[in-house]
Amino acid sequence: MADHHSEEEKKDESLMHKISDKIHGHDSSSSSSSSSSSDSDDEKKSSLKAKVNRLFGREKPVHKLIGGGKPADVFLWRDKKVSAGVLGGATAIWILFDVLEYHLLSLVCHGSILGLVIMFLWSNASTFVKKIPPRIPEIRIPEEPVVNIVSALRIHINQAFAVLRDIASGKDIKKFLSVIAGLWVLSFLGSCCDFLTLLYTITVLLFTVPLFYETYEDQVDCYAEKAMAELKKQYAVFDATVLSKIPRGPLKDKKSD
């Protein structure tokens, strides 16, 4: 009987060892599978991130895309005090001229009157108080910066005229439709608000959109890629049904053999 009980105990122990081994093996396999699945998920995320096409095919970072230097630092809030000061000044100007309906000419005249009165009284009072009169700086506009600004404006205006001439010649229908759509949007915005409000809205967008895009550029690029694919499909349908039936402008003469 004792031998029979010992054999049963040995069988039970061996059975328990097998069960425990199976449990541990399952845990190790599940942990390894979970770790491998997490690694595969990370690889998938990295591959998806690499496959995401940047908005408008950009390759440079947002800071360089908007010009770089101090203006880009201001728009991207690198220096919060300067950015807040510029945006606050733009807000004050918009409230002063648009909300309170104060005129620019009146502001310039009133500011000049106030400044001239203060400097005049200060200069005359200094002789009675026996103090040094105020030093009024001599202000002159240098020639070189003005010439550089005018030259840069001339180049950009000539480029705009060249683009408009190229569009009007009927060579690129896609560019023609995009310019017409842009001008129509501007005319619609001009009918909804005045120029100062439109300028202030653009300023606010410059201080918010680049910062938002730099923070969430992966998500924005992913949605933008889907939207561009859908627009390309719609444009292909529109091109096949409408644009292909529009007569094109005269092509350039082929070179004689």
TrEMBL record:
GO cellular component entries: endoplasmic reticulum membrane
InterPro entries: Reticulon (IPR003388), Reticulon-like (IPR045064)
Annotated keywords: Endoplasmic reticulum, Membrane, Transmembrane, Transmembrane helix
Subcellular location: Endoplasmic reticulum membrane
Biased composition regions of type Low complexity, renumbered to the chain: 28-38
Main location: endoplasmic reticulum
Reticulon domain location: 71-257
Keyword check for Transmembrane: yes
Topology of this chain in the membrane: Multi-pass membrane protein
Pfam families reported in the protein's UniProt record: Reticulon
Taxonomy, superkingdom: Eukaryota
TM regions (residue ranges): 82-97, 103-122, 176-209
Compositional bias ranges of the Basic and acidic residues kind: 1-27
PROSITE patterns assigned: RETICULON (PS50845)
UniProt keyword Membrane, yes or no: yes
Annotated region (Disordered), positions in chain: 1-45
Protein name according to UniProt: Reticulon-like protein
Species annotation: Castilleja foliolosa
Taxonomic lineage from the root: Eukaryota, Viridiplantae, Streptophyta, Embryophyta, Tracheophyta
